[in-house]
Structure to design on (210 residues):
């Protein structure tokens, strides 16, 4: 009999703007696919190409205004559109690497002052990450990496608020801190070490609380 197929893992990259999470999420997927073609997929949230993501993209580019409650639910809905894709890949043994997830959703909406319990409830039921890699970048290093972009949430005030909220979402049972101040290759090695230590024997779960 063939050896039982191991499940894939769901890894979420979270952190502030310019922490390097998008670059490193891409690097991890590239290196996994170099080792075994088709063994990992990258999913950015928001997915600006989905029907809902297109509206979010227009909001972020300041082309349209949206009610903040609606926007929060759109970010959640955009993730639920990928619910099945994530579960199917994990079941097939394919790793899913996400650039942002519901923790960005909760952190940004709390930073905007939306009601806490309401904000924390809309992503319940999503696939639970095997690991959230929190990219911890010091303000001095982030500042050296260049100015803010032109999108709606890319302001010093918003970043400070998100920086204050994000660590309060931490759950030590599956969050891991990555020192994001290092150079690209050092951070890549740290991420890979964390990846290799993930436990694929444990059953895959859904998020019961955030
Ligand atoms: P990118 O720059 O990474 O494309 O993010 N955001 C993101 C939210 O406010 N709620 C969410 O649920 C998510 C996933 C963070 C675009 C911006 O959207 C914010 C920055
Ligand atoms: Mg951005």
């Amino acid at each position: 009999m063939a050896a039982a197929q191991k499940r894939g893992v769901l890894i979420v990259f979270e952190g502030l703007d310019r922490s390097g999470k998008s670059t490193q999420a891409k690097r991890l997927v590239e290196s996994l696919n170099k080792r075994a073609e088709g063994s990992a997929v990258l999913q950015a949230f928001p997915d600006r190409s989905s029907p809902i993501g297109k509206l979010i993209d227009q909001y972020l580019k300041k082309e349209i205004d949206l009610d903040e409650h609606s926007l929060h639910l759109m970010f959640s809905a955009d993730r639920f559109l990928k619910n099945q894709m994530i579960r199917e890949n994990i079941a097939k043994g394919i790793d899913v690497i996400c650039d942002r997830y519901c923790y960005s959703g909760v952190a940004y909406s709390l930073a905007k002052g939306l009601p806490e319990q309401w904000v924390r409830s809309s992503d319940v039921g999503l696939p639970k990450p095997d690991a959230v890699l929190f990219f911890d970048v010091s303000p001095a290093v982030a500042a050296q990496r260049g100015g803010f972009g032109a999108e709606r949430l890319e302001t010093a005030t918003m970043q400070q608020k998100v920086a204050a909220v994000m660590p309060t979402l931490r759950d030590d049972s599956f969050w891991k801190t990555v020192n994001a101040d290092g150079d690209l290759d050092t951070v890549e090695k740290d991420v890979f070490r964390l990846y290799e230590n993930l436990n694929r024997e444990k059953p895959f779960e859904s998020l019961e609380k955030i």
